[in-house]
Amino acid sequence: MMRSRVNSLALLSLASLLATACTSEKVVYRDGPNYAQPTTGAASFVGYSDEASKKTVCGSCHVEKQAKWATTKHASAWKDLSSSGTMQTYCQPCHTVGQNGNPSADAKAGFGDAAAAQYHDVQCESCHGAGLSHVSNPSLTNYPLASIAADTAAKNGCGECHSGTHNPFVNEWRVSGHADTWTTSHNSTDPYCQSCHTGQGALATWGITSNYVEKNNTSNGTANMLGATCATCHDPHGSANKAQLRFPINTASTETNLCMKCHQRRGTFQDAIAQGRNSVHSPEGPTLLGQAGWFPPGMSVADSIISTHGNVSKNPNLCATCHVAKYAGTDPLTKAAVNSTGHRFLATPCVDASGLPTLTQTCAVTAMSFRSCVASGCHGTETLARAAFNTATARVTLLNNEGTRLVNLIKAIPAKAADCTFSATKPYNSCLGLQFNQSVVTKVGGIIHNPFLLEQLMVASITQVKKDYGVTVSANISLEPQLKRPPTVPLSGTQH
Ligand code: HEC
Ligand code: HEC
Ligand code: HEC
Ligand code: HEC
Ligand code: HEC
Ligand code: HEC
Ligand code: HEC
Ligand code: HEC
Fold first, then answer.
1. How remote is the CA of residue 285 from the centroid of ligand 8, in Å?
2. Least enclosed by CB within 10 Å: which of 23, 204, 306, 426?
3. Is 230 in the pocket of ligand 3 (CB under 6 A)?
């Protein structure tokens, strides 16, 4: 009975869609979602039409979503749980479809009420909520939208399952800058700023026009604006990239790399001129790829220096190698394993006695963990990695301080002082270029993102102001490259 009702209504709404010139085959009505009528307690969750072949009732019409989702780990959550040999009842709500992960009003829904195979795995309704009403009457006005938000407390999206001691993804993300990208931008109403500083803006800019709960919550000054949430970086329905990422992390391109799509606003002096500001804004992508900075006349773009850190054949996961590194620590009291998921996005975190990142990240370099440098197989020990960090930082900082001294000397030459003040309408010069390069250097992490480029940018711009303004470089400053790649790490760019 139910089946024929679905049939006729679905055909009706499909016909009205076709009438509005929809040629997409993303939603195809297929005859036969012969689902069992949910029990009353299951709170209208429909689940699988056939568990063995992973056919969800939703997927019988939403064929494109079904095909993608079936390839994700969500679709094998029950198999992995039950074959782990350690399954207990309390494990199940996160490995099945029911009250977890959606705003279901019931304390127990789906599997939580009726422990049937129909509700195995993390299915569509885990995120979208109960679907019986929509399935019985699919229309453009009656459908269960999912949320792209994430929190530990609120009953929404990923948080209810991806949190807690063993999987503290949301717990870590919540205190990271990515949860807070909207406030960082000083709540800018400019859609351009929002394209990197809000989840909604990023999805729209990336052409993900999908519908979700918060899609139209884009008004300023409200609590509606979301940061870079889980569903900003991860495609909830699956993707060709590892870990369901929306874009790859292993491409050396600011156009295609997930992280670099945002971390690249103003990295070159051409960007600075175009945007009317002589300093960087999120230059991490261009710095890593050897493109950031002002290249003085003697240093052409062809000389761009890419360190091992930015070389995709030596460091395939690029940004994520250092910034999304998961590991286990040990609770000093219970000796139990505790996990860091890497979703604080810290490359060299300050850690507590368990080895987990501390809330405040203000420790000395000696107390920072350099674990990601070793786990990646790039550096032999944490001590060696820390030493390399210190050496590069000391050298580039010395050059930067010299740069500041030289800029002040130029400013003291009455006829030249004005050169050092930026205006987009006057010709660019080496005093401005030196200052731009200093902003690349002083951006947190810049030195590690590309020590060899930054040393060379400073050396070349110091050499250029010396030539242009006759200022004298301090005797203790060597203008020869001092930073040497460790012999075990092969050369990967053009070393000067
Ligand atoms: C019998 C076919 C059918 C089934 C089964 C079905 N849907 Fe739909 N769904 C539709 C149609 C038709 C629309 C409206 C047209 C469209 O969005 O292209 C729709 C719309 C939606 C939308 C809104 C899409 C948008 O563009 O805003 C969501 C979300 C959705 N369905 C989720 C689900 C979920 C979750 C299930 C399973 C509980 C499900 N659907 C089951 C046919 C179906
Ligand atoms: C709070 C929700 C939650 C509970 C409770 C839970 N899990 Fe999970 N489980 C997850 C999440 C989220 C992942 C995915 C983590 C990841 O990809 O790193 C996962 C992954 C797994 C995996 C796959 C691991 C792998 O390496 O692929 C197994 C097996 C597993 N859980 C078993 C269990 C067992 C056994 C229990 C109970 C003792 C349990 N889970 C309880 C949420 C949960
Ligand atoms: C892990 C959570 C999750 C799961 C599982 C999931 N969805 Fe979604 N779904 C979302 C989110 C979040 C969005 C909005 C963002 C997006 O589409 O990337 C969405 C959007 C949609 C839309 C709107 C698409 C549009 O074009 O406007 C449809 C339809 C949909 N999902 C159907 C499904 C179906 C069918 C399944 C199961 C085969 C499913 N979803 C599984 C979270 C999920
Ligand atoms: C009902 C609980 C639940 C919800 C809700 C949920 N997940 Fe999961 N997720 C899991 C479990 C369990 C696994 C591990 C399955 C396994 O490995 O067997 C998992 C695995 C994953 C993985 C690992 C994929 C891989 O290839 O390693 C990603 C990424 C992920 N989930 C993202 C999300 C995102 C993003 C959302 C929200 C839009 C979400 N999940 C919502 C339970 C959930
Ligand atoms: C800024 C982008 C970004 C955001 C935001 C983000 N992730 Fe991830 N996530 C990643 C990257 C990158 C990886 C893959 C790291 C690797 O395997 O090298 C990953 C991996 C994962 C995995 C697989 C871990 C494993 O065991 O292999 C899960 C599960 C996951 N993320 C869940 C989440 C959840 C839940 C949220 C929201 C709290 C979230 N992510 C937010 C970028 C992000
Ligand atoms: C949607 C745009 C977007 C994407 C994609 C993105 N980021 Fe970010 N990221 C931001 C913004 C905006 C901030 C500034 C947040 C702040 O300072 O509060 C930020 C901050 C950071 C921080 C500083 C974290 C902190 O707690 O202060 C790191 C590190 C970082 N991102 C690394 C990454 C990596 C690695 C990736 C890829 C896996 C990535 N980001 C992807 C927009 C993005
Ligand atoms: C192309 C992406 C992108 C755009 C567009 C963008 N930002 Fe950002 N912004 C970022 C990222 C990524 C970060 C964090 C990394 C960093 O600070 O280097 C950031 C950091 C910031 C910060 C913190 C800077 C600091 O040094 O602490 C502020 C403030 C900010 N943005 C404001 C804005 C405003 C206002 C706009 C619009 C005029 C804007 N952003 C446009 C990507 C972007
Ligand atoms: C070789 C390891 C490595 C790689 C690769 C790497 N980073 Fe970093 N990053 C670091 C280190 C180390 C710091 C400095 C941390 C500190 O001093 O607190 C840092 C700092 C940062 C910061 C500033 C964090 C803050 O606290 O303000 C951002 C943002 C950032 N990186 C983003 C990125 C992005 C985006 C990429 C890829 C384009 C990337 N990083 C590639 C190691 C790396």
1. 10
2. 23
3. no
pLDDT given at position 42: 75
Evaluate whether 100 touches 107 at the Cβ level (below 8 Å).
Answer: no
d(CA 76, CA 71): 9
For the stretch 30-88, pLDDT in tens is: 544 455 667 766 778 999 999 999 999 999 899 999 999 999 999 999 999 999 999 99
What pLDDT, on a 0 to 100 scale, did the predictor assign at position 219?
63
Q: Summarize the confidence of residues 206-225 as an average pLDDT.
A: 80
Ligand 2, atom nearest to 86 Cα: 35
Could you tell me the distance, in angstroms and rounded to a whole number, from the CA of residue 343 to the centre of ligand 5? 7
Give residue 487's pLDDT.
43
Best mutation site among 56, 76, 95, 122 for ligand 4, i.e. most ligand atoms within 8 A of its Cβ?
122
Residue nearest to atom 9 of ligand 6 (CA): 178
pLDDT band for 29, please (50, 70, 90 cuts): low
For residue 158, which ligand has an atom nearest its CA?
4
Residue closest to 81 by CA, chosen among 71, 68, 90, 69:
90
Contacts by 426-431, CB closer than 8 A, 24 or more apart: 428/269, 428/273, 428/294, 429/468, 430/296, 430/461, 430/464, 430/465, 430/467, 430/468, 430/469, 431/407, 431/465, 431/468, 431/469
Residue whose Cα lies nearest atom 3 of ligand 5: it is 233
pLDDT of residue 24: 53
Measured between alpha carbons, how far is 483 from 389 in angstroms, rounded to an integer?
11
CA of 120 to the centre of ligand 5 (A): 23
- Choosing from 308, 319, 373 the residue with most ligand 8 atoms within 8 A of its CB, the one to mutate for a pocket test is 319
